[in-house]
Amino acid sequence: MELIQHTTTWIKGELFEAKLIVAFGLFSAVMGLLFWKAGHTPNAQALLWPLLVSGIIYLGVGGGMMVSNPKRMVELPQSYRQDKKAFAVSEKKRVDAFQYGYKVSKIVATLFFIVTLLIFWTTKNSTWMGIGIGLSYFAIAGLVVDYFSQERADTYYKAILAALH
Q: How many domains does the chain fold into?
């Protein structure tokens, strides 16, 4: 299989992931609104802002992916046809540039979980507990997204290295 086919598979995976992220963001925002509107306890109503903020962030991330990746589906095959070796080099550089993000997301998720535990151990304040749940919710969603994204990135990176040798 040629590198461009791996590239197309990578982009299709990114587009699928983007749709899931948008759906998750929308779901989160709606759930925040429902907890606020239909919830009759302080804890339920305290979930409005954490879920709404998480949802909006995920809507932005997924939406951005849905805008940028279709452009890549057009541009990258053209680049590949012009110079296959230069294409592989540029893709290696691009993939190398975002690999650190997976480590960062794991560190951030770990910190969010620790903060959540500290909140739950030290207070019974509904607002703070809602923030803790929002942080953990945001972290677990990020880990799930990056779990599959990193797998695709690793597979794509191996194809790039094979194309360079």
A: 1
